[in-house]
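Query structure, 446 tokens:
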């Protein structure tokens, strides 16, 4: 079944090529297509295009279809083009001509726009939840190990003292900025395109504000042409936010891979969290972190990939946009897995409490010694020169302690303030408002 079927048989090769992976990708959209249809038909009933009795019958069937989709038992017939066609087909099989009425005032264009926005809105919540889980682990580890010093690096050369507290806390705060960008993407996603039809509106007196409220959207994509132009743009904006999270994960994974090596020996993991070699019995390989690094680097390429696929398209719908699902949906799954496994790894990380006592790191205290002289009244340039001469002469014997008190430094991590930043950002998503509206939609009483 094709929504655009006019009784002419499509060439089989053409049909297979144009459908592509749509049936597979549309399984991600199944529950959202059903919810969108439920909101749409309630609006159709309010403007007199279907009766109250028809609405009741349709909603009853749609609730059952939604349940199947949510449980992961939904399939799309091989003779059906996509999720939109299949839901209408299921309704028609059960309710006859009444099932055919659900497409009034809609185009497949605004249907897929709506489904993708509903899907992305939900996936953004999941990414945010997983990011908060990792954030909480990072802040816990930051406080737990805040007094253990490690060398900091610039140019991969030993630079100044750092600490495990600073290192864990840095990635925690990085996630707070990632969530700000994710929230911006969420606000763009959280606008209702339904009613834009093929991108030029409808001659039916559609009540677009009603479906906006029913589906819990913050606002409308008002201009119907722009609503269609949002396809591709929305995905790219979400991809940018995802790439920011992926960047944090990738850099953190690279640090851990480096810190696990015998040349560093800063951190380790229990044997069950590492892999071995087929010929070297001593090996404990950071395979999980290496895979996180690679998967997240791929995700960072996603905005550019979407840009190349959409950059020379005019306004209005193009079939090119169909392929966006094939690269975006798996990337979302990949990012969620990376966040979850990164959290599990960080919960089980083991730190080396004696790192800083290795003589190779003695010079990271040079600035501390310079500053100590400055505090005694020695001009900075003179203090710098003296410490440099002591190092050159082999007379450098620092006190391996730090005295940092300003905000965000070794002895003042500002963990409380970083937590507050994250809490403020997450609360401003207002996920609960959407959940309430969708729950109401599924449990409507006629």
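Result returned for the query:
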């Amino acid at each position: 079944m094709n929504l655009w079927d006019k009784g002419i048989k499509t060439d089989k090769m053409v049909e297979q090529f144009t459908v592509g992976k749509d049936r597979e990708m549309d399984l991600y959209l199944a529950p959202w297509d059903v919810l969108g249809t439920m909101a749409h038909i309630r609006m159709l009933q309010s403007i007199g295009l279907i009766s109250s009795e028809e609405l009741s019958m349709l909603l009853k069937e749609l609730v059952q279809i939604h349940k199947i989709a949510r449980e992961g038992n939904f399939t799309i017939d091989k003779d059906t083009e996509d999720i939109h066609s299949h839901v209408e087909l299921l309704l028609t099989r059960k309710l006859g001509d009444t099932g055919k009425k659900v497409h009034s005032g809609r185009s497949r264009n605004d249907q897929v726009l709506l489904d993708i926005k509903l899907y992305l809105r939900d996936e953004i919540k999941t990414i945010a939840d997983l990011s908060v889980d990792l954030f909480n682990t990072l802040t816990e580890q930051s406080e737990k190990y805040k007094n253990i010093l490690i060398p900091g690096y610039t140019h991969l050369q030993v630079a100044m003292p750092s600490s495990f507290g600073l290192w864990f806390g840095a990635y925690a705060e990085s996630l707070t900025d990632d969530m700000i960008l994710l929230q911006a993407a969420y606000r763009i996603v959280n606008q209702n395109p339904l009613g834009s039809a093929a991108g030029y509106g409808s001659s039916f007196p559609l009540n677009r504000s009603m479906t906006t409220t029913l589906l819990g959207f913050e606002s409308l994509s008002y201009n119907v042409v722009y609503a269609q132009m949002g396809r591709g743009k929305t995905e790219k904006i979400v991809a940018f936010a995802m790439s920011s999270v992926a960047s944090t994960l990738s850099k953190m994974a690279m640090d851990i891979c480096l810190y696990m090596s015998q040349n560093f020996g800063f951190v380790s993991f229990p044997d069950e969290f590492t892999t071995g070699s087929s010929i070297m019995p001593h090996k404990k390989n950071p395979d999980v972190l290496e895979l996180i690094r690679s998967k997240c680097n791929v995700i960072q390429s996603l905005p550019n990939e979407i840009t190349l696929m959409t950059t020379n398209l005019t306004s209005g719908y193009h079939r090119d946009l169909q392929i966006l699902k094939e690269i975006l949906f798996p990337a979302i799954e990949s990012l969620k897995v990376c966040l979850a496994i990164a959290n599990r790894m960080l919960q089980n990380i083991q730190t080396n409490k004696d790192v800083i006592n290795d003589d190779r790191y003695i010079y990271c205290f040079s600035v501390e010694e310079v500053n100590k002289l400055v505090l005694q009244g020695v001009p900075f340039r003179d203090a710098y020169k003296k410490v440099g001469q002591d190092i050159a002469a082999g007379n450098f014997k620092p006190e391996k302690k730090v005295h940092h008190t300003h905000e965000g430094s070794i002895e003042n991590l500002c963990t409380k303030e970083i937590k507050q930043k994250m809490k403020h950002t997450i609360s401003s998503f207002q996920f609960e408002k959407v959940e309430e509206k969708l729950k109401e939609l599924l449990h409507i009483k006629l």
